[in-house]
Amino acid sequence: MKSKIVTIVLFIIATAFSAKAQIVFSELNYHSDSTVNAGDWIELWNTGNAQVDLSNWKLDDGNILNPPYTIPNGTKLNPDQRIVLASNLTRFDALHPGVFRIGPMGFEFSNNSEQITLLNELDAVVSQFTYLDTLPWNKCADGHGRTLELLDPAVSPGNPANWRCGCIKGSPGAAFSPCTSETLLVSEINYRSDSLANAGDWVELWNRTNGSLNLSGYRLRDGNGFNVYVFPSGTIMNPQSRLVVYADLALFNSRHPNVNNKVGPLPFAFDGNGEYVKIYNSLDVLIQSVSYDDDGTWPKCADGEGYTLELDTLFTNADDVNVSESWFCGCPEGSPGTAFINTCGLSISENELIGNLQIWPNPADLFLNLETASNSGRIEIIALDGKVMQTRTVQGEQITISLENIPAGMYLIRFVSAAGVLQSKFIKN
Description:
The chain is mainly β. It folds into three domains: 2-168, Sandwich (Immunoglobulin-like), CATH 2.60.40; 184-206 and 241-275 and 287-341, no CATH class; 345-428, Immunoglobulin-like, CATH 2.60.40.3080. The chain has three helices and 32 strands. It is globular. It starts with a helix and ends with a strand.
């Protein structure tokens, strides 16, 4: 009988611990944009199949000057339910009325980096992670209107790859859903032109709705809140149309003389090392934000090599506009004011094409070797729909190219030098 009682007690303890272990951090708002400021908040999610009593659990922000926030008695979380711990209830309720929340926490999170710890009523650590506002953490939540949303509750929250950018204002108290309200997109960015084909900085906006959009009084900003461009009165975008906002009219017209759907000039330039492009409506409320970088996995072709960042042609509201996977190398000098032209990367005249490029193995896995008759040039890997997947300057007659970030499929590879163009097709397994 005694052994049966011990077994039952251990089963109860194990069951309770298992239930508590299913509480995860699922969304974080640590630095609001000033126009959509709900105060700092964090969301907890019960991923298990049993109710969990959170009474007297604690949230610690790692700052010894801030006493941990104690969750009130009687706070229970049902299976698949979420609860928000907010720093400022008045601000939070004004932006997110009706959301299941508790607080105020008595402290705010750091705008730079913070270790956040959830402890149960016995002060045992349930979950803990440290976020940063620098790569490899996405910077979209650092004062630019978005939140960080957990991707997989089974993966550590300390892994920056396990978080995605949420929609503008986030989705507190609910799972992530497509950002259907974000109908005005940044669809192309030219932040550093080739010195020999300098159009100045410009961005392209895309009205994804089937109705006209009046941009009168809208504002475009970069990461510096003091830099602002106000759209002129009467700026109308037709359904599904695109509009270019340029920085220098003379430079832009010198490279794109036939583009008429444009406004400007921007009173600022974009940072060539990484920047934010943000759109505010006529009430000066943030409605769109994009952060790009010239580091990490972001396409290098737009960083002074003569291409633009082009939004993926298959982009949907469920995708993350703030990750490199949503952008690719557009046409040489871009396609301002129009949708991506899928033949731009494949047009080579017979005078430029001087022969086949010697490559091996073909099909290839992680690497592709090539042999040229020149010591220096530029390698371009191009998908059959015209997307430039990779470009880099190379030297040497025998070169090895990494295909690690290239999806399986058939591609064109080119070697462009002063002598002309060598090209071949290959298959990536």
